[in-house]
Amino acid sequence: GKVRAPTHIISTISDDRGEEPCYAGVPMSTIVEKGMGVGDVISLLWFKRSLPRYCTQFIEICIMLCADHGPCVSGAHNTIVTARAGKDLVSSLVSGLLTIGPRFGGAVDDAARYFKDAYDRKLSPYEFVESMKKKGIRVPGIGHRIKRGDNRDKRVELLQLFARTHFPSTKYMEYAVEVETYTLSKANNLVMNVDGAIGTLFLDLLAGSGMFTKQEIDEIVNIGYLNGLFVLARSIGLIGHTFDQKRLKQPLYRHPWEDVLYTK
Ligand code: ACO
Ligand code: LMR
């Protein structure tokens, strides 16, 4: 009989060998003919299945709302400085992307992990927040540099509104709202941020859609898929900032001496 030669690579998400490429078994022509969007493509390539419309719409809203947040945030700042140093698009983009992490934009997975664990263990908001404090860990998904209890993040409100209208359950996000009520009683900047909203609402999407087993949800949360949403979204803005600086022919950036405290 035939002997299969061992391969060095295993791949399960896409296939370009046939007449047309397929994403998770779905041919390109079907994607176009059915009028699918980027949310469907993310569902196929990341989750290897077609998700219901409200899920793909939620993914698209996350991408749109996180595409940019002005020139002053860490990622855009790095991209602008890099573009002004005369570097190319990819260098400017990745220099911005490299700032995404536990403090900026990359707290989505940890928010999902910690809030899921606390909810599943039925911790009260007080027990959850105070146990994190004892461990010296800031609650991921809580806190913002400029948003406050009396100046909420509109993106969070829009995501919450969409989910409360379309999701079968928003239990993880509602738990995060209870946690936020407690953290706001401690300090006015400890609001639920966009990472916290996406992290907890994605848990609700995964658990409520009936499309994922418990093991699959644990795998998605453990591997950490969800920061990918912010990385993908913010790439749109960072590419825009690169073009903007090039279009404006901005010179090499040098930080002003007056804005540095030179001290011993
Ligand atoms: N949990 C508990 N306490 C907190 C938190 C939090 N998430 N954030 C701030 N605090 C408290 C702490 O007591 C902190 O003191 P510490 O430095 O001794 O820990 C105090 O508030 C003051 O903190 P600042 O450093 O002044 O807060 P800052 O405005 O710099 O922080 C930040 C903003 C980085 C977002 C912070 O709240 C944080 O680390 N949050 C968790 C990570 C996170 O969710 N990041 C995503 C932000 S949204 C985005 O980037 C798109
Ligand atoms: C962002 O989306 O970049 C922000 O929430 C961070 C910020 O400081 O505004």
Structure keywords:
single chain; 264 residues; mainly alpha; three-stranded antiparallel sheet; 3 strands; 56% helix; 2% strand; binds acetyl coenzyme *A; binds (2S)-2-hydroxybutanedioic acid
User: In which range does the helix fraction lie?
Assistant: 55-70%
Q: Taking Cα atoms only, what radius of gyration do you get, to the nearest Å?
A: 21 Å
What are the segments in which pLDDT stays under 50 over at least 5 consecutive residues? Answer: none
Compute the number of strand runs.
Answer: 3
Quote the beta fraction: under 5%
Structural shape: globular
Secondary-structure element series: EEEHHHHHHHHHHHH
- Main sheet summary: 3 strands, antiparallel
Strand order of the largest sheet: 1-2-3
- Which ligands occur here? acetyl coenzyme *A, (2S)-2-hydroxybutanedioic acid
Tally of individual helices: 12
User: Mean pLDDT, rounded to whole units?
Assistant: 97
Structural class: mainly alpha
What does this structure look like?
The structure is a single chain. With 264 residues, the chain is an all-alpha fold. It contains twelve helices and three strands; from the N terminus they run βββαααααααααααα. It has helices at 28-33, 38-47, 53-65, 74-84, 89-97, 108-120, 125-135, 154-166, 171-186, 194-208, 214-223, 227-247; strands spanning 14-15, 22-23, 26-27. It has a three-stranded antiparallel sheet. Strand 1 (14-15) and strand 2 form a beta hairpin. Helix 4 (74-84) packs parallel to helix 12 (227-247) and helix 6 packs across helix 10 (194-208). It is globular. Acetyl coenzyme *A is lined by residues 102-105, 107, 138-145, 187, 189-190, 193-195. (2S)-2-hydroxybutanedioic acid (LMR) is lined by residues 69, 73, 105, 145-146, 194.
